[in-house]
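User: Can you predict the 3D structure for this chain?
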Amino acid sequence: MKTFIYFLIFLFNVAHIFAQANCDIVSNPSLPPSPYRHGSFRFDGKGDFLRSGDLNSLEFSRQTTDSFSISSKFRITKLNGPQYIFGKFYSAGWFVSYNTNVPGYISFHIGDSTRNVFYLGQDSSWHEYRIKFSKSIEKLFMYVDGSLVYTYNNFTYTDLASTSAFSVGNAGLINTYGPGSVNTNTGWFGGEMDYLNITVNSTSAVNYNFNEFAGQVARDSAAYFY
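Assistant: Here is the predicted structure, written as structure tokens:
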């Protein structure tokens, strides 16, 4: 009996050491925890959001913006009703949405123009989207999963000056904080996002790379910082 008890204690100690080695957050935050797996950031479609301050670089000024690129990988899991996935919009600005302009489409609204990005329908799988604009040739390009799907020629847009926040999970959030600062009652994004990168004149303005560790800690996959 004693031998059996000692064996159980040995197994417990080994399991405890293994759990500590593989589940504790590492002391060096520049290294990923172990075990580490690629993840995503989940939005419940009922009010989950991320919000920045008033980022002027994301207003894509017609005077100073020669080009911009918006890249993101996400999937829609709430396949009903309009959803404003991300953007910087309050009276003026831009946003990427689903099921708002044309039913079933991922759309890009900027200034006074709205263009189709991709017909999603009831597809809940992952897709990579890229929206690219070049002022020198006045063209707007839409890429989905690495393939060019739309080219809009002679494309221009109106001024986008806005004091709104840049947000993910909805659009139209004002640039303040507190219980009364989220004034959007509908249009919440229900789905998951892997990354969101925005460049303006080839300079990075937003670089969100979402990963998760055991569903407990949200991390930046570029630096692994909290």
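The CA atoms of residues 41 and 74 lie 9 Å apart. Residues 2-26, 212-226 have pLDDT under 50 and may be disordered.
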